[in-house]
Batch of 2 targets.
Target 1
Amino acid sequence: LIDLSANESPYEHMEKEFKFTNKELNRYVSHTELEAMLKELSAYTGCGQKHIFVGPGTDYLIQKILLNNFMDRSLVILNPNFYGFTAFAKKLNMKIKRIQLKPPEFKIDWAGMGIEKSIIVVDNPNNPTGKPMIDKDELEKLLVDNIVIIDEAGFEYSDSTFADMVKDCGNLCITRTLDKAFGLAGLKVAYMLVGQAISEKLNKGADINRPALTISTEAIRNRQYMLDTVSNTLAEKRILSKELEKLGFKVYESQANYLMAYTEVKDLGLKLKSKEILIGDLSETWLRGYYRISVGNGKENAALINELKAITITGTQ
Amino acid sequence: MAKIIVTPIGGNGFIFGRGSRQISSEVLKKVGKENIIIVSTIDKVGSLECLRIDSGDYEVDESIKGSIDVIIDYKEEIIMEVVC
């Protein structure tokens, strides 16, 4: 099975890279261990430790914010999105407003939306389009009377961030994950950089387990694996994009580790699934003919292209 | 004030005109955009690039086009763009 549906890193870690042992699994995570991770994250992000919170996944961290800030605010999210926290927001009886993304630009006229007193979640770059969704000027205007959460899950691929605004913008939160570029999806560790108005309402605890904390800390300290695999993925993305275009796909420019592509080929997701290749089929939840393809390694991408050639040769019916 | 509650046509997204001609442009002019309530399931509206209007009156279409809220569930809406 080749899974190109979940935006994971296709590159496995070498066993020797992590020094975790089973010692002290009978004990809870200590404050010292959390401090060590915060110290590494602070050096990596350029944000002070008081602004950094760690948790088991982005959904968990956003739920933590909703739980402490939902009183009179609506939740604004983009459509489509792949978050789990919307169900949590419904349980909190929050009003939810989605914004439909539409071709060809997939851009949002933030000024024309009239959004106020809300918690706005924007993935930047966006999943599934791979496009930037907001610029600094738009963000500053939204922050006047909204809490804004920017999900930078694809930061290492886009090299674009608003992290430097956190120390001055109390209502800003940046979420990031070690699932993607750090290749640690199996640990499900995320962190957020939050402004003072948000951080003062949150408890800072060690919400992740010792194996996750230990391995994550080491991965952030020794970033060569991440840098190498990001470089490989960006190179593979360029090749994959060209190959897809040769096959007649409309491929959208992406700042992330996946490509969104449009095709008239019917039931492409199902056809590939029958060949044991999984891609993100956006027809099921959004617009017909759109697919999100995670950039795999060279071998996986070649297998995908070979199957696509066979499918497109048989026609678009 | 009168309200119009309408659901878009699946597949093409027309709210007024084309396959949905029960309400004339004269009525739309009197009711106004602020009194049009659009309801839909997320499955139907989420698969549309936009909503469409072709009432037969250019000025009415222009007054309704742009962003509009569509109710998709209890306390849940989606902002769609209406195009002419």
Note: Chain B touches chain A through 19 residues (CB under 8 Å).
Target 2
Amino acid sequence: MLKKVLVANRGEIAVRVIRACHELGLETVAVYSDIDRAALHVRDAREAYSIGPAPASESYLSIERILDVAGKSGADAIHPGYGFLAERADFARAVADAGLTFVGPPVAAIAAMGDKLAARRAMIAAGVPVVPGTELGLTDDEAIAQAPGVGFPLLIKAAAGGGGKGMRRVTEVAEMPSALEAARRESLKAFGDDTVYLERVVEDARHVEIQVLADAQGNVIHLGERECSLQRRHQKVLEECPSPAVDAALRAAMGAAAVAAARAAGYVSAGTVEFLLDRDGQFYFLEMNTRLQVEHPITELVTGVDLVVQMLRIAGGRRLRISQDDIELRGHAIECRINAEDPFNQFMPSTGRVSALLEPTGPGVRVDSCLYEGAEVSLYYDPLLAKLVVWGENRAHAIQRTRRALTEYRIAGIKTTIPLHQQILETTQFIAGQYHTRYLEESFDMPRGGEGDHAAVAAIVAAMLAHQRRSDVINRLAPAGGPSPWKLYGRRASMRSRAL
Amino acid sequence: VKYEARVNGQVLVIDLDRPGEVAVDGTVHLADLRLVDGESLYSLILDNFSHEVIAERREGKTEVLIEGHLYEAEVEDARLAQLRAMGGQEHAEHGSATVNAPMPGLVVKVMVAPGEIVERDQGLLVLEAMKMENVIRSPRPGEVRSISVEPGQTVNLGDALVVVDEAT
């Protein structure tokens, strides 16, 4: 078993991994950039090491600095979390070369699944259904020529991509040149590679993914699905488990396909096989994420399995103690991603200091977060601040409980997507479970300008604050000398404002 | 002191003369407003109904977030509002529009050149923040008068980016 784990990440996922380590009695090592000195993961870990300036390329993405800290601290394993170096085969290889354990899949599995074309070929060979598309490494001219054959609408996807970066949706040939340029530019910047390919869009598709766990002894199980169709700009917004579109028979079929995919990749550790699910219940392999997913907690709440603990046990060479028959989905879970974005203003990134924080608690509520009062939210990293994860006895109960928790949740000082989730949970489409991956962008509008029931309350608050400001101005205008009518007025006004 | 508060097209006359009371269009309510975090989180008890709101000033208006809904309130001293009503119309929108950075970020690409004719909502430049690219669009049709940034440049919130004016 492992002894000391370096967590090569920041934010809520670093906190999450540190928690699992501490529960297993493992020592923890945090790394941090200059602006993360006071971050929660740094304060929660047993040891913490500075690894450079704020830009990720000079800190959290620096393999050299992270391995240097591993050496200095005597860590025997590295957990990469998600994002940053989590799906970089060269990082996993460097960790192994340094004689350390990588808490994740083998280098070959990361490389095979990270290469979208190789993954596709492997899936076809393993009998897993795939979406129609092209080969990799097309020139712009080839891509434009082959586009009609793939069929519109189609996606231009970065070969090295993930998380929606370097991805563009195209509905006609005329849009191809500018979309190709944008996809290549984004991909080059995010991954240092501008290789792209085309893939047909499965209309009205749901994004449903299967969680798998595999040990080094060859045991592979799946832990059911997660419904991830509520997305904006290819970023997941809210996920639920189980999916309202998946019944026991479909779950068994998708689960078997995911297990076959994991076996074909020689997979070990926790991983996720993403599928598109169409209206007729046909599913297609999308990609395999060779890491812990952001939304892993909903699976944990419904199955009772701690996925991060399992990853650590498996990395330590232990055999899976749970079998497929032990996996039973109990109740329903919903995750709301709380991002530093303004849902009332085109989801513009929001930065600043968190002036107030009150996290929901109570029955069935879990918050995985990196926030604290006084935390500074910067533009350097991902906008994900926290995940509200709620369990209920059934879907209706989970929705009611999530609404309750969102009402309790208060974050002030920065704009967050809490109101977005409150609005989504009120739509008939969500309540009915009738939504697909384009729903949020095509059919959902964030109401603006106060369509709710509390316009009068808002007016009263605004008037009371205006009154207070006016009193403050009058106080400042008062001369320092003897009493004047202004000063007397100011005193009266300030007494009033205190009384408010 | 009487105030006129405009929310969602509705105008309420709010009288705050008596401490602990608020008269809305002549009806008196008990109101107790407390600032919780020293900045923007407030607890309001209005006739024994408990509300928790986030209120912030933005461009002369007060934005109030209540239970997932955002209300924009404009508040004016009722006497000033009356004077203004007597004084006549507000000046119409015309002249040049300066496009300011809606967030801090990195200018990735400038898509227009000075002298270019643009339409409303046409993309002017691409600003990257939190690893996502955001297209900054023209608020009006017209001619690009000047561009004060170039690709690779980091900008702060509110920095002037582009000036769009009536076409000459």
Note: Confidence is low (pLDDT under 50) at residues 88-93 of chain B.
